Amino acid sequence: MDCIFCKIISKQIPAKILNETSHSICFLDAFPLANGHALVIPKNHHKKIQDMTSTENSDLFSLVHTMMSKVDSLTGSTLLAIHNGENAGQEVPHVHVHLIPRSKSDSAGPVHSMFDSSLGSSDSEIEKYYNLLKI
Ligand code: AMP
Ligand code: ZN
User: Fold this and answer.
1) Spatial CB neighbours of 38, under 8 Å, sequence gap ≥ 6
2) 4-104, which class in CATH?
């Protein structure tokens, strides 16, 4: 499997590993967007969150919870981001959670700043998607 994150897990390529559990690993991003930018990934190769088993999912978010205390202590605010699929901006096709320290002076903004404008959905569209998604 030609996956850069699988190669980190199998130690074929180096990484600054911060913490590890039975199913997950956390390491520093090699091209950080802020000092302390970390990634948490499952050890098994899965492209999307919903492809993981429930055990892997629990283990991943438990490690996110543990590492968040450390990363958040750097600036007091942290962006937690998952690009779940190529069209969402996922460049490495192996599930990864970004923990990116944020500060008032950085160049990023709130989630709405990622899009040119708000969709302005009608009440019927909101109702349609409510019915499609509710479980
Ligand atoms: P994404 O664009 O959401 O798929 O994020 C992929 C992340 O992996 C980016 O933030 C990259 O900087 C990071 N990355 C790519 N190669 C490596 C590597 N060898 N070690 C650590 N992080 C990496
Ligand atoms: Zn992989």
Assistant:
1) 18, 26, 27, 28, 29, 67, 71, 98, 99
2) alpha beta
